[in-house]
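I'll show an entry:

:::
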Amino acid sequence: MKVSYNWLKEYLNLENITPEQLADQITLTGIEVDSLIVPGEGLKKLVVGEVRTVEKMEGSDHLNVTQVDVGAEELYQIVCGAPNVAENQKVVVALPGARLPGNFKIKKSKLRGHVSNGMICSLEELGFSDSVIPKRIEDGIYVLPEEAIVGADALSYLGLDDIIIDLDITPNRADAMSMRGVAYEAGTILSQNPEFEKVSLSENAEDLIENYMTVSVQAKEDTPDYKLRIVKDVIVKESPLWLQRKLMNAGIRPIDSVVDVTNYIMLEYGQPLHAFDYDALNSKEIYVRRANQDEKIITLDGQERTLNQDNLVVTNGDQPVALAGVMGGQNSHVTEKTRTVAIESAVFASSLVRKTAQSLNLRSESSSRFERGLNLGTVQAALDHATALIAEINGGQIVSGIAEIEVTKPLEKKVSITLQRINHVLGTELSLEEVASIFIRLQFEYTLVEDEFIISVPLRRWDISIEADLLEEVARVYGYNKIPSTLPMMESTPGELNDKQRLTRFIHRYLEGSGLAQTISYALTTPEKAERFSMKPSKTTNLDWPMSEEHKTLRLSLISGLVDNAAYNAARQMKNIALYEVGHVFYENESGNLPLEEEHVAGLLSGSLTENTWSNTAQPVDFYTLKGIVEELLETIGIKETIKFAADSSFNDLHPGRTAEIYLGEEKIGVIGQIHPEIAGVFDLEETYVFELSVDALVAAEKNSVLYAAIPKYPGTSRDIALLVEETISHNEVMDVIEANGGKWLQQVRLFDLYQGEHIEAGKKSIAYSLAYLNPEATLKEEEVNKDFEKVKKALKQELNAEIR
């Protein structure tokens, strides 16, 4: 919001405060000032001149030799190339020695043999942005009104003697999106009550609004308030200089004397208005409704817009003539030929205006105000003021009455707060009188009952609705810098991690110690990627308003993000990839709207975990490399229940012969396997292995107590056994038999050989295990070990039909 200091002076006495001081005070009270803009900074020797004669320069198709009266004894000869220069014009003249924006200096010069004593200036040359220069003079000089005094300083005529305070308005302070709102804010700072011009309407009693227009709405919740006035016999022309000056300093381009008034009122009241060419409506009815699906409208910018049922439109009873709260239609806008103007002042649902502006990528000054909310108390006041100005500037007559829908009069809210509560929260020792003076400065009417303030919140401050809002008002007006810095008085409690936090930190340390690097991926991805690698079937959760199509759907697995990261690294010649991530996945919640969140940990290996050196050859990772990392992680955590790996071929995105589900007892808690070669090919990855575990399941699992044992004093012994078994028999099956029959001294079983091929019968495989025995309390006898070892061999023969080699 660009606030003109000179405009603000129309409401308040600012003689004792500079713009810089005012900006500092506004910042201290909670509204950030982005910058102070001094449009006339560095400009000098700019005066009002009157063009007396204009002669075409011989030999030039565009240059003119002019004689200009600048208030000196003699006329100044100035060469001007502007196409719109003419006799008797009042113009802005930069005299020799003048300095223009960009440190451009004006000197006495000669053009094609003709002396030029200065320059007749366009607005662009004076530093105005192209976005605010009126279209009619985009390529020419700016013509001042006839009442401009020749020889006077031109800066004040153009508003270049002003200072603009650029405010960064937060969503909760939408009241400051208007000059009147800022005036109340500045008045609070200065302990002044702003004074506003009283508007009087002179209606034509012989002409009634009923003869021109009726208004209705489809739904009151979409359009809580709609009012319309008619001004007839207008002559649309150029706006007066004071009006153009205010609009340009606020960053708005002047259009014509009707549209400029609606923009001026929007800036003053914060109430967006729209002016229709009454005759172009071809109807005596205004009907506000939701748009039909795929309905079309051509807006003022000349673009055809395709609408949907979330868009609100103003219609002439049949076809749309405006996008409610956003932009008018080209079929009903005011032109130079307009003779009767219909002026709209309304309140539209913020959510619908926001959806329309966002879906059509059509933001406007109007939509930004509707989205934040309006002052319901000034809807008609703004309309009346605009009507009076349009009639005054354009010489029109105001038709008697207002076409409007039935509206419930808005009521001021009552919010209460006690002095004790204020001092307790702010840590202050304010008195009743001090707090009362703050509410008086805010112009909040109140009733005091003992130490309780019952505040009647004015309609212009619709952001205040609860006690906390009043606390903020007291704090910012009193001064944040005056509030003492105190620590809260409370019983201290020692901080500690809960079970989940401790386990999560351990997982981080373990995986990083195993050579994996942490990654953090977006929880939002594409619908296709979100469904990949999910540990259990679930529908995905989509955002209603995604930032992009690549971040639309909540993930069902962490692996998809790791694969993306691996592909990114592989594309940059990083072939050895070891990554992990701890984060949330989101499953469908059948009993509610919000998805179910589960914390998972996932890892990915590709290439090798080690580098080639003179003494070591790098070995590519395989399924068992990753399985070993996972097994050791689960073993180190101390899970009490048995962990099992069960082969599974149901995962479409994983290799059907190199994938297993991980079970904790009977509960599935994870998956491990190789990325399907087709998927790996899409991402240009070599053999890649992944796992994913539910952290929540690991936290809930019962853990073994940590037992510390002394180093054994007695030696152990070992036995090796080689088996010939069917190739369909898994390692887990063999381990189960050995551990069930190994006896009480069996400490460890290790697979050290696996062979299939020459000299081995087809359909079979040779596997070899080493069994370690230890009695921590005595030396083991050979007979004890041999007895237990024979039980193992017998069980393998009977249960697995194994051949002992």
Summary: The radius of gyration is 41 Å. The chain has 21 helices and 42 strands. The mean pLDDT is 91.
